[in-house]
Design goal:
Radius of gyration: 31 Å
Number of domains: 3
Order of helices and strands: HEEHEEHEHHEEHHHHHHHHHHHHHHH
Number of helices: 20
Largest sheet: 5 strands, mixed
Strand content: 5-15%
Strand order of the largest sheet: 1-5-3-4-2
Distance between the termini: 36 Å
Number of strands: 7
Helix content: 55-70%
């Protein structure tokens, strides 16, 4: 890697020949313009006078696509040349640049020459470059803030500010690796050598993880209550099955079907799921319509059937409402404190404590596995759940948390 992107840019320009390009061949696409306020009319007027007086202007920098030339550097000069009535303009044509390299060029070219980039545009450029090239400046679990600043020409303070959350996530990944290595029986010094920190830092991470385990009590208590409710519901349903003489199902286990009912899934043909122990085939044989297709209708055939009497009986058990309420509260805690990699400004992130508890507390591990099964059925299928489909970013974060938990 060059010492700076300015050096890289200079090398590209040195290798490129200066050519005379017809202005009609140049596509001034707004998507290629990195200035938030577009072209400056006063600067275009100034450049127009220079072109008209035949004063020397540096060549614009272009990249060829299938039909046109696109602008890497020189929007003001292209506009001014057109306004001056010129047919052609001098240009450097760069070849072989990837899409990311083209973006790097556009984002950094006005940091050293031309109309100075505004504070807003400098900030935007810094953020985009961090987003695309953060990993290029990571060694071990440490981001080289000064190296990034020097390479692209930003201040270290700006880079530190815009990379803050990525650096926090990097530290979180390091801390989770410390827990994983500790669970494998490695000594503190071995862990320190593996992740590139001091032995004292390893001790501090393990101490913080143990302290964060205590913040999970709210979540643990709610899941324990939910499990108790589900046990009550399961026993209640088994008795109802006997008293209402519903046929045995030939599908998944009673536990799985009860999970569907207890957490509030609807009986729906499309997902092949019926509440309790009534299979889709049996419900169809009895002539039940799909309630999802007729949500406002009360079908006497259902109400007066054995299935209808069964569902009326379940309405009398308060645990059905209670378990939904408990799971909703547990879900909020899980969403806010455990799912996301970066902490909220008002709530601590319990992810480190969660992984520590999952590794060291068998009761917590059993509870969390129960939670995942009851709340999502399967973490592998989270994208197909209502929560996953409505918020893919949340689904991705959940999958990542589950991958970390499984790895532990």
């Amino acid at each position: 890697m060059n010492n700076s992107f300015t050096q890289q840019r200079s090398q590209w320009l040195e290798r490129a020949d200066t050519q005379s390009i017809t202005l009609s061949q140049i596509k001034a696409d707004i998507k290629d313009q990195v200035r938030s306020d577009g072209t400056d009319p006063q600067l275009v007027e100034q450049y127009t006078r220079l072109f008209s007086s035949e004063d020397s202007m540096p060549p614009v920098v272009l990249i060829a696509d299938e039909e046109h030339y696109r602008i890497l550097d020189g929007f003001h000069r292209v506009s001014a040349a057109t306004r001056a009535g010129l047919q052609t303009i001098k240009a450097k044509i760069l070849k072989g640049l990837s899409t990311q390299q083209q973006e790097e060029y556009r984002l950094t070219c006005n940091l050293q020459h031309g109309k100075s980039a505004s504070t807003k545009d400098r900030s935007t450029a810094c953020k985009k470059l961090i987003e695309n090239h953060f990993e290029d400046f990571v060694e071990g679990y440490k981001f080289d803030t000064q190296g990034f600043a020097d390479y692209y020409g930003f201040g270290k303070t700006a880079v530190a500010e815009h990379s803050k959350w990525r650096r926090i996530r990097l530290e979180n990944t390091r801390d989770l690796e410390v827990l994983r290595l500790k669970s494998l029986g490695l000594a503190a010094q071995q862990i320190a050598d593996a992740v590139g920190v001091t032995r004292q830092k390893v001790g501090a991470i393990l101490k913080e993880a143990r302290a964060l385990e205590s913040t999970l009590e709210h979540f643990r208590t709610h899941v324990e209550e939910a499990r108790s409710c589900c046990d009550t519901i399961l026993n209640y349903e088994k008795k109802l099955i006997e008293t209402t003489e519903l046929p045995d199902h030939n599908g998944p286990s009673t536990d799985l079907y009860t999970q569907g009912l207890a957490i509030g899934f609807d009986w729906n043909w499309e997902d092949g799921e019926c509440v309790a122990t009534v299979t889709q085939e049996m419900a169809r044989r009895w002539g039940f319509p799909n309630p999802e297709e007729h949500p406002e209708e009360e079908d006497p055939k259902i109400t007066n059937s054995r299935y209808g009497r069964y569902m009326q009986a379940t309405d009398r058990l308060p645990e059905y409402d209670k378990v939904n309420e408990i799971f909703n509260e547990a879900s909020v805690f899980h969403h806010d404190r455990m799912t996301w990699e970066t902490p909220s400004t008002t709530r601590p992130n319990c992810r480190l404590g969660h992984v520590s508890a999952y590794l060291n507390d068998s009761e917590y591990k059993e509870l969390y596995d129960f939670w995942v099964f009851k709340a999502f059925g399967s973490m592998e299928a989270i994208e197909s759940t209502p929560a996953g489909m409505s918020n893919p970013t949340y689904a991705k974060a959940l999958r990542k948390l589950w991958a970390i938990t499984e790895a532990a």
